[in-house]
Design a protein that fits this description.
Structural class: mainly alpha
Number of domains: 1
Helix content: 55-70%
Number of helices: 5
Order of helices and strands: HHHHH
Radius of gyration: 14 Å
Largest sheet: none
Shape: globular
Distance between the termini: 11 Å
Strand content: under 5%
Number of strands: 0
Amino acid sequence: MNEAALHDRLAAAYNLIGAALRGGRPDFIRLTDELAVLFDPKGPFNTPTGNLALPPEIGRAVVDIRQVMERFRDASAESGEDAVREIWAVLSRPTVVATLKDREAFKPG
C-alpha cells in the first residue's frame, strides 16, 4: 500500500470512530465490524468460513479501539480528547502501519 492509500485508510478509520463517539451511544459491535471491513477490503466473504481475514496485528488493533471507546463511552468532552489520542496511538502503531503497508489486498494490481 502506498503512503497516500495508507493515510486514507487510517483517516477513514479515525473518522468512523470520531463520528460514533460524537453520536452519543455508539453501537460498538457495528463499528467494530465496519473497522474490520475497512482493513479487509476483500470483505467478510473472502474466507471459506465467511470470517474476516485480518492479520493478527490489525485484529488486535480493532479490539483495542473498541475497548478504548467503551471506556470513554460516557465520559466528558475533555475525556473524549484523551480517547481520540489513545485511538490514534493504536492506529499508528508501527506494527499496524507495517502490516497495512504489506497487505497483498492493498497493493496496486
